[in-house]
Amino acid sequence: MKKFLFIAAAALAMVSCSKDSEVIPSVENGKQNAIGFQVTKQNMGRAANDMQNTHYNFGVFAHKNTTGETKVMENYLVGYMGTNVGYKMDVNDQTTLGTSKWSYEKLGNTEYQYDGSEGYYKKDQTFFMSNWDVQFLRYWDHTSSWTNFYAYAPYINGTSTVTFDNPTHTMTFADGTIKDGYDDTFMYEYLYATKNVPEGVYNQVVNMTFKHLNSKIRLTFWEDIAGYSVEMKDLVSGSNVGISAAPAKADTPDYKYGNLAKKAGAKITFTDNTTSGVYVDSPELSSSNFLNPTYYTGVKKDEPNFNDNEYLNFKIPTAAALATSKLEATNKTTGIENFSPTVYFGIPKDDNCGLTFHVSFELTAEQTGEKILVQDARVYVPGTQCAWQAGKEYTYVFKITKNTTGTTGNPGHIVPGDPNPGTQALYPIIFDGLTIEDWGTAVETEHPIN
Fold it and tell me: Over the range 421-443, which residues count as b (16 or more CB within 10 Å of their CB) and which as e?
């Protein structure tokens, strides 16, 4: 279902589709029994794609069913070894199986020593390092009828990280470890996955498809003002504020600042057929076996939610003239210049908080070239259209019309975090009340005709 607002805003939810995972034979000599990985990422609204396009690491927990459930891996860092990207490993240290470039052996924080000038992660980049001092190659145990894998990305380094409770099969992201952010998928796009591997297909790489844990927010614009073209401008000229979005709640007479989370924790429970709390042989855990992630946003005092007058900040679209139809504005191929280049990864939320967007733009008359700058135009998007769910992408489509808010005069001090919608900005030149002055009486003169 699609809903639209004017200046105008529309929240379009794109639901992820699912795709079965595969297993890929392992052929590397001497390591046929080692556990290796091959991974993909479930795109929001699209089919799965290679995970190394957006992530170079993930964390993994593994359990087998020998006596009860025995740990095989405990929050191991698995890293991607690409060309000048990811982790730099000597050929003799690589543990890739077959064509996979995902490795975990010798990626402990005391083992990984790369400090060169190429594009690989360096040893002092703590964010990308393992919590373990050393990491060892793990092997398939054919006395176990299955091995289960539980993974997440990006890998979280530090004492506050991700844990896995075996009896309840619950993965917990510690409070504050899920963080909002812009653009950088390697740091702010959070994922999770699971895989059940029966003994009959051991000795092959573990193929997993990751699902999204947070929400993705994008903006795009088009205009419908006859006789004018429209170009977006920074909200505050000469600053780094392009388009702001202030957390807001509708109130009378003014709007109140809303509550938007910067950080959160989460719990994910994986379910399947069990016998006395122990997994039995079963097919791969399907998407229907994922319970919805439960978020909790209680944060520490030094990790606050958005404070009053804080706001989201998006770059303006690069189009010299905005599209004149919604169809073009929402086309990510031919109309991409109408999109803000900024992608925001947000914490999933309920509908208690909306957003007040602030924009500035310039009108150019097509016939005369006259320019009119409209500053601090605003629109309030209600909380019902800001109820972000995990794994979904939301595109807010803004239509600029002659009824826009803002001002064409001096706006004074612009407050990007003001939650209040503005008042009308464009007042058309209208001719009315036209009168004709009375005829005046001239001096009468007489001119006889003789």
Answer: bbeebbeeeeeeeeeeeeeeeee
Cβ neighbours of residue 64 closer than 8 Å, sequence gap 6 or more: 70, 72, 141, 144, 146, 147, 148
* C-alpha closest to that of 51 among 233, 186, 223, 216: 186
> Which amino acid appears at position 124 of this protein?
D
Of 2, 6, 3, whose CA–CA distance to 398 is shortest? 6
Peptide bond into 8 cis (omega under 30): yes
Inter-residue long-range contacts of 43-49, CB under 8 Å, 24+ positions, other chains counted: 43/16, 44/14, 44/16, 44/212, 44/216, 44/391, 44/392, 44/393, 45/14, 45/15, 45/16, 45/17, 45/393, 46/16, 46/17, 47/17, 47/19, 48/19, 48/209
What pLDDT digit, counting tens, does each position of 115-169 carry? 999 999 999 999 999 999 999 999 999 999 889 999 999 999 999 999 998 888 8
- How far is Cα 247 from Cα 11, in angstroms, rounded to an integer? 16
Q: Which residues contact 384 (CB under 8 A, 6 or more apart)?
A: 351, 354
What pTM does this model have?
0.83
